[in-house]
């Protein structure tokens, strides 16, 4: 409204009680109230009469400020001290900066505490044990798998034999303190000189093959070395299906390899050998411990660290030996049989075969009832002495059912010469039982 300000009259009362305006007396109203100025200017705002803070006894005061001359500074603006003031940009930035710094300091403190608790605090030596003392080497109980492996590894060797086809690599183990080592016959088969054995510490020794039994797949090497620790032998006849076992050896030339499994089956009759070559028979310990080429001749060990078998052969889906691999079907010669054959070789240089004194016919017995037919018996042999005759069908040997000729041969080889076994057989329609004392046949 130009330079005119309209305000209510702020009054105060003198001590005599008369109201006095805060402003000088207003000039008398214009004589011409209908003039243009008077018509366009009202001394009241619309709700003045209803203002609860206006003193009804105070006269109305209208202050008309003169229009300042051009170039004259205007009146100083009046600012309400209680009115909210807009915050400046600088103040906002300052608050934001302080907040960011505080957040960074808090995050850094949390990270430091986490790092210290995690072993990464400043001044902490990585891996330092509490108290600054180096921890003692972890001790495994002797009966644990690690304890058994630690005890056996110094007695297990890698066997290398030079043949006309190159170098054959297998495994073996120390059987005596004076240097006899047991391995498989097929590891040293056709060797042209001394065999070399490599111990777990990398040291080597050489010696001749002093004897072999191709049918049982056992061979013995004699090395010239002192301070040897022989293995402890267990009892393979005491094994039960499900017993834990370890296989130790050098599969695929990877020395000092230990694998674990269980006894999967017992008296699994095996007829092994390449076509046209040596045929081998034994009633094997079947295990699912991983066994591959190079494990041959190594020990199968029970949970007490005693050798219960000699790893010898695997079943595979491969078409040939070179590509055969582990599928959880491995077979070991029972240690009772292997130990007996090795003892014969060490003592006499020759192995003894256990025989029943009879020839068996090929294939299954006629009639589909199972059993193995004897084609003939040797005069004066164990079978004839027990009353068996050619044409008899042997059904069981010491309670083990027979289905193939291989079963009878392999089971007989398992026993030591002089052992007495019970034979159940069928002659015609009659079923009978006989006790047969097995004999030795020196090759």
From TrEMBL:
<keyword id="KW-1133">Transmembrane helix</keyword>
<dbReference type="Pfam" id="PF13180">
    <property type="entry name" value="PDZ_2"/>
</dbReference>
<dbReference type="InterPro" id="IPR001940">
    <property type="entry name" value="Peptidase_S1C"/>
</dbReference>
<keyword id="KW-0378">Hydrolase</keyword>
<feature type="compositionally biased region" description="Low complexity">
    <location>
        <begin position="32"/>
        <end position="43"/>
    </location>
</feature>
<feature type="region of interest" description="Disordered">
    <location>
        <begin position="1"/>
        <end position="58"/>
    </location>
</feature>
<dbReference type="Pfam" id="PF13365">
    <property type="entry name" value="Trypsin_2"/>
</dbReference>
<dbReference type="InterPro" id="IPR009003">
    <property type="entry name" value="Peptidase_S1_PA"/>
</dbReference>
<keyword id="KW-0472">Membrane</keyword>
<keyword id="KW-0812">Transmembrane</keyword>
<feature type="region of interest" description="Disordered">
    <location>
        <begin position="366"/>
        <end position="385"/>
    </location>
</feature>
<protein>
    <recommendedName>
        <fullName>Probable periplasmic serine endoprotease DegP-like</fullName>
        <ecNumber>3.4.21.107</ecNumber>
    </recommendedName>
</protein>
<feature type="domain" description="PDZ">
    <location>
        <begin position="345"/>
        <end position="427"/>
    </location>
</feature>
<dbReference type="InterPro" id="IPR001478">
    <property type="entry name" value="PDZ"/>
</dbReference>
<comment type="similarity">
    <text>Belongs to the peptidase S1C family.</text>
</comment>
<keyword id="KW-0574">Periplasm</keyword>
<keyword id="KW-0346">Stress response</keyword>
<feature type="transmembrane region" description="Helical">
    <location>
        <begin position="92"/>
        <end position="115"/>
    </location>
</feature>
<dbReference type="InterPro" id="IPR036034">
    <property type="entry name" value="PDZ_sf"/>
</dbReference>
<keyword id="KW-0645">Protease</keyword>
């Amino acid at each position: 409204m130009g330079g005119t300000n309209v305000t209510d009259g702020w009054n105060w009362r003198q001590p005599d009680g008369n109201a006095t305006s805060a402003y000088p007396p207003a000039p008398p109203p214009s004589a011409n109230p209908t003039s243009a100025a008077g018509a366009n200017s009202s001394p009241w705002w619309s709700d003045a009469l209803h203002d609860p803070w206006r003193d009804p006894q105070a006269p109305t005061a209208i202050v008309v400020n003169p229009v300042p001359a051009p170039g004259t500074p205007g009146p100083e603006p009046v600012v309400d001290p209680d009115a909210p003031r807009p915050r400046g940009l600088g103040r906002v930035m300052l608050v934001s900066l302080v907040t960011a710094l505080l957040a960074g300091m808090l995050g850094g403190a949390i990270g430091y505490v986490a790092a210290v608790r995690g072993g990464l605090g400043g001044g902490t030596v990585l891996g330092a044990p509490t108290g600054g003392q180096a921890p003692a080497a972890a001790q495994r109980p002797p009966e644990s798998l690690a304890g058994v492996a630690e005890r056996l590894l110094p007695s297990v060797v890698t066997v290398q034999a030079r043949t006309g086809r190159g170098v054959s690599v297998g495994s073996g183990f120390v059987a005596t303190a004076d240097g006899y080592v047991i391995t498989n016959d097929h590891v040293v088969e056709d060797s042209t000189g001394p065999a070399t054995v490599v111990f777990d510490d990398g040291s080597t020794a050489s010696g001749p093959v002093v004897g072999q039994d191709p049918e049982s797949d056992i061979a013995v090497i004699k090395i010239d070395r002192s301070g040897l620790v022989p293995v402890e032998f267990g009892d393979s006849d005491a094994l039960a299906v499900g017993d834990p076992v370890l296989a130790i050896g050098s599969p695929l030339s990877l020395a000092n390899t230990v694998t674990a499994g269980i006894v999967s089956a017992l008296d699994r009759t095996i007829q092994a050998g390449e076509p046209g070559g040596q045929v081998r028979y034994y009633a094997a310990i079947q295990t699912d411990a991983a066994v591959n080429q190079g494990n041959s001749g190594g020990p199968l060990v029970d949970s007490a660290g005693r050798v219960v078998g000699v790893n010898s052969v695997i079943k595979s889906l491969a078409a040939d030996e070179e590509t055969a691999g582990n599928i959880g079907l491995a077979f070991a010669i029972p240690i009772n049989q292997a130990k007996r054959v090795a003892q014969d070789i060490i003592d006499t240089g020759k192995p003894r075969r256990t025989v029943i004194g009879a020839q068996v016919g090929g294939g299954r017995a006629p009639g589909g009832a199972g059993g193995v037919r004897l084609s003939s018996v040797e005069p004066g042999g164990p079978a004839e002495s027990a009353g068996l005759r050619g044409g008899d069908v042997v059904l069981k040997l010491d309670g083990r059912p027979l289905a193939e000729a291989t079963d009878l041969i392999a089971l007989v080889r398992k026993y030591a010469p002089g052992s007495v076994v019970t034979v159940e057989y069928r002659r015609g329609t009659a079923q009978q039982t006989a006790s047969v004392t097995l004999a030795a046949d020196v090759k």
